[in-house]
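stage 2 :: seqdesign
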């Protein structure tokens, strides 16, 4: 049987299983609630995530598990190499944090505000939490100066889905020799490793919900495939591999095609009003996949960006600014867009004075979009990106761009 026929046969089999799964869901969902997660009801922002992480790391917190999570976290940190490519690891002394450790969030110093700070008598670990936001100008460099003044032994942990940028580190040898990265996948592993030793059922239940939240909302992972589909893939591994590779190729082609259409429209319709930029690769490490529009008379961008490092998932959009934009202008952007766009910013950040998540619900073909989607790896979105004009997906982009341009022309921002 040819590859084409075997692949089609596999897709047909998977289609049958998916339909069967949907029938089971209809009949049993009310009893099992497999998609229930109370955490999503609270719409966590970056500072909220830091608070939850700090809560588990705090040996004095009400979870009553003492330094359990802190020990596993320090163990994970000690296994990371410093960013200076020396091959060195943090000294084992950083694992000496105990039940006396102080854990603080949003800790203000002259050079900025630490997301999470762990301290004992002489050691300090500053955790810079970057689930979505871009790096601040010389942010890690400034933090390193502050930590060096206050603590004999200090360490920066960059918690993110990607490495810190040169903009943040300033390419300083001191920063690179005191900074390690910890991915959200590794943080999840920390919690999973500690989970069997959690004695309180309520704490273990909440931690499981939190792990699932991180997997879906930060890493962009989809729920695990059920056993029947996993078995089908295992039995037809090479055909499934071909489908996976084709999926990646179609996604790349759709993204590049969509960006090209936006660029053409920008040049033809907006002439000198807007400058279009994009990052074409879907898989990213240091720079996030995005497309943006810079108004000619402003030092900021209208930017559509994704936090998922591999797939067309977890999109947000808003205004991101250059370092020279004043506090007054950033505040005005926040205030005006909160009122005029009908949605308040998810969080006010130094480089993103106004931003919102994409629409989370599934995109249905033929149904008008009210907001830019959070996830573009849906058939309806892929079809629109590959269409001649970008379809409704391009139209929602231009509606948002036009709205912001009108606010510029009216002098509101």
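stage 2 :: out
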């Amino acid at each position: 049987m040819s590859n084409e026929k075997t692949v089609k046969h596999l897709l047909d089999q998977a289609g049958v299983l998916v339909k069967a799964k949907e029938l089971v869901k209809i009949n049993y969902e009310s009893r099992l609630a497999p998609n229930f997660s109370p955490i999503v009801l609270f719409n966590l922002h970056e500072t909220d995530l830091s608070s939850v992480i700090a809560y588990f790391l705090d040996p004095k917190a009400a979870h009553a598990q003492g330094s359990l999570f802190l020990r596993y976290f320090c163990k994970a940190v000690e296994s990371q190499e410093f960013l200076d490519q020396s091959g060195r690891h943090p000294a084992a002394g950083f694992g000496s944090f105990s039940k006396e450790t102080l854990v603080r969030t949003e800790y203000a110093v002259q050079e900025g505000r630490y997301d999470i700070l762990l301290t004992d008598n002489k050691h300090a670990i500053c955790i810079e939490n970057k689930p979505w936001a871009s790096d601040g100008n010389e942010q890690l460099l400034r933090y390193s100066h502050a930590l060096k003044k206050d603590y004999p032994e200090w360490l920066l942990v960059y918690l993110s889905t990607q490495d810190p940028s040169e903009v943040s580190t300033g390419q300083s040898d001191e920063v690179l020799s005191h900074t390690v990265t910890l991915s959200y996948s590794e943080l999840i592993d920390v919690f999973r490793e500690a989970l069997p030793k959690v004695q309180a059922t309520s704490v273990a239940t909440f931690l499981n919900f939190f792990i699932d939240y991180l997997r879906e909302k930060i890493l962009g992972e989809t729920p695990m495939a059920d056993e029947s589909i996993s078995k089908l893939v295992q039995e037809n591994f090479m055909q499934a591999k071909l489908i996976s590779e084709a999926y990646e190729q179609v996604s790349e082609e759709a993204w590049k095609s969509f960006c090209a259409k936006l660029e053409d429209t920008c040049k033809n319709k907006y002439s000198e009003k807007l400058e279009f930029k994009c990052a074409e690769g879907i898989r990213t490490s240091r720079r996030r996949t995005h497309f943006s529009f810079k108004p000619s008379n402003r030092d900021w961008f209208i930017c559509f960006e994704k936090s998922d490092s591999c797939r067309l998932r977890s999109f947000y959009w808003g205004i991101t600014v250059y370092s020279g934009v004043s506090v007054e202008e950033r505040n005005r952007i926040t205030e005006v867009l909160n009122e005029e766009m009908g949605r308040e910013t998810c969080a006010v950040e130094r480089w993103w004075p106004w931003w919102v998540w994409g629409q989370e619900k599934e995109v249905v073909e033929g149904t008008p979009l009210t907001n830019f989607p959070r996830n573009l790896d849906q058939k309806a979105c892929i079809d629109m990106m590959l269409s001649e004009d970008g379809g409704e997906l391009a139209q929602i982009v231009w509606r948002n761009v036009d709205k912001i341009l009108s606010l510029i022309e009216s002098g509101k921002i």
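stage 3 :: structure notes
- Residues 1-32 form one domain.
- The chain has a mean pLDDT of 82.
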